[in-house]
Amino acid sequence: MTRPANNVLRRRHFHRCWAACLSAWAVGLALPARAQFGPPDPYDTFEGDPGSSKLIRIPADTDDWTRHFRLGAMVGMNIGASFSMKGAFGVSGNNPAAGIFDDGYVLKDQSGDPTYTGYWGYDNASQLSGSMLTMHAASGFTADTSAQSANGGPLPGLDMAYGGNLWYWKHARVGWELGLGWLPITISEPINNQGVSVVQSTYTFNTGTIIVPGAPYQGGPSGSGEPIIPLNYYGSSSSTNSGTLSGSHTLDVNLYTLRLGPSLYWDLAERYGFELGAGPVVGLVDGDYKYDEAITVNNVPAVNKGQVSGTALVWGGYVNGTLFYHLQNNGDIYLGAQYMPMTDATISGGGREGRLNLDGQLYFSVGINWPF
Amino acid sequence: MKFIFQARFFLWLLLVPALGGARAEAATGFGLSAFSSTNLVFVGTYVTTEINVTNESSVVLTNAFVTNTFSAAVAFIEFGNNYTTNMTAVTNGSTLILDIPYFTNGAAAQIVFSWQPQAYGTLTNAIEVGSTDSDMTATAATNLVFQEIYSEEASLGVSLNIVAPAALTNDWVITNDWVTLSLTVTNAGPDAVPGVLVTNVLPASMVLRGVEPGNTSYTDSTNNLVISAGTLASGTAVTYQFTLQPTNTGAFALFGGVGAPGLYDPSLISSVENHLYVTNYLATLAAGTNSTQVVNPQNGLIEQTIMVTNTGVTAVPAVRVVVTGLTNQLYNASGTNFGFNTGSTNHGSPFMVYPVALAAGGQIGLRLQYAPRLGFPFANSRLQAYAVPASVLNYAPLAATGQGTNINFRRILKTADGDMLLEFPTSTNRTYTVVYSDNVLFSNAQVALPVIVPPANVTQWLDYGPPTTSSAPTNSGQRFYRVYLNP
Fold first, then answer.
1. Is A340 a residue whose pLDDT tops 70?
2. C-alpha to C-alpha distance for A14 and A337, rounded to whole angstroms
3. Which 3 state secondary structure label does DSSP give A223?
4. B373 contacts on A by Cβ (under 8 Å)
5. What are the helix (H) ranges across chain A?
6. B391 pLDDT band (50/70/90 cuts)?
7. Is the pLDDT confidence value at A79 over 90?
8. Among candidates A336, A105, A365, A372, which has minimal Cα distance to A221?
9. How remote is the C-alpha of A259 from its chain's centroid?
10. Is the ipTM of this complex over 0.85?
């Protein structure tokens, strides 16, 4: 690599580039390089001793590039998730005590009438039999589903690394690299009519002598100019029936990784360089297992939504390769590929489990590298 | 202060006699006449006064004085004469004294001086000529009167209109209705006018219930309202609204006027008039309830029937029942104040109308509907029945094809009590109107009032007869309905 003629100037460039690096970190954009890359120097040579297989310590006062910082975008691939449920679950979408049912509502209207209300509604004609209007509310369901897997598509994220060179080995430089990665992961799995056992309560309202409006009917809160029915139900019962579960489960998490390992860098040509690295990696998975379900029994769907939050520590190893193109002094662009198998992360609670499968992660990255 | 004679002022000796203006004649001993160059005078206008004095005595006078005493502040500019070069002038406030030191017998002096008025209003110049000469004791006097000194020129306009109730036709209202009168004052320029005063003269039987804007400064002296409008810039306008309550029947003229101190406005039409017709037709109508308050579960309203009886000897064209002192909403109120105590008419008391003639001796039952459906004390004294011309409430049937989208009914059926129930889909942010007729062609369709404000996605509208329709459906051989989504 061509060395700058003036070391002081090179340092100044570093400071400017370091400031540019920080700015780029803040806005996610790379700043253009400040200096010009000069024509190849016919007298310049690669450092090191090509004739020796020994490691040669790079002197502390060398003018050569011994450190680098890079920042770029990456996509993560081959990341999956699996979801499972086992046990009894509640239903969030109704509240019979407050007059909210799965297929209607009976709420207090604005008239001040403590007994009757015009603020009611129902969904299906089948709920009406004579003067009796039936409302349904699923209070819970039991499910035992095996893990259902889903794969996440290419997931965009952010990658940065800082490293240094310690020795020359032939034309190559041997050093170390510390990397950080951030990858938001959202993986959903649809649920299609899985069999569940549902506890459903039935509430019957006596509409008296009114002509009940045809379904679907949604009365307003005023209570004036609309038919009224009793606020309290006439009777209720409960039964357990077979039903179906539909909807989706989603893992919505962030994966933060920290890796550290040795690196081997060599210049392939005047403007090209290549680096290999490998080492251990630790990660943190933080986020939510979300569910949006419809539990249907007797053709009445009950809505159940919620989430379970969790944090998990994961670890593994990595191996990567990075190709550099030297644009100018202190400025490269790079393309990288990385294989990073890690342990799985589990977020669970209330009989639900969402597992993030990280054992085959692949990353591809592109960005800007600042050698200094 | 002495003025220096200026030769160029002699020009006025030739010009001023050719100009029009105030003129005065005076007494023997001295001959005296005076006039000014113009009668259209603004504050700051350059005005020239010419005074002709003759010594009609047989002696030569020393020190003949011509005194000009102005009734308001003026500024003196310059003076001159054609008789002597030795005339002097002394001013003292608004008084100018001109001294002819030597005035031969039989001589005539033509004196000219110029001045500027300093304030608007009436201005008088009291002119007197006399002498300190012991041989001359006679004096002569005359006045030059300027009826108006103006401060600015502008063309003001005023218009007066009844703007509410909007349903009024021919400006007819019922006694005790509240009527909104709009008075607009415009200034077409060229000058801004300070101190604009707007007058609104109301008939004695008209009660003023309010003036908008609320911060309007006005005085009310026996229904003669005077509003201080402040300064009205050129090209601007200001509008006031008066809420009036006519208490007597008759045709009433309303007057609006505008003006300002010191304003010169030759085109000003100081007042306009707009006739308000107030009717009452308070015949021998009696109204009273014959039922208790009952909750109708089909519409969630309290319902109560009242009977209106025409005990007179002549039919009335329509009946209007005003319900006062309500704490609940009269849900099926019709006319101009649909809603609950809107305050736009009837001091906020809602009313309903039976839009059909009621024969002498006839009786009609009207159903009153209240919301919310909580009972309240009710007395017949709350009911006031009026005979009204049907046209007052603009009951012309609407063209069936001219009103929005035709809504399809889900069903039409008769309830157990004989009402007709019409069920149709609705949007809670729209309004709907039901039109009915006794024939399928809707050739004589009528509008069912009030307009429907849907509370739900499905509306069940009841035809229970008067006042929403002209008769109970059970009393009609056949009845056809259409419902329209209002624009």
1. yes
2. 27
3. coil
4. 111, 113, 116, 223-224, 228
5. 7-27
6. low
7. yes
8. A105
9. 20
10. no
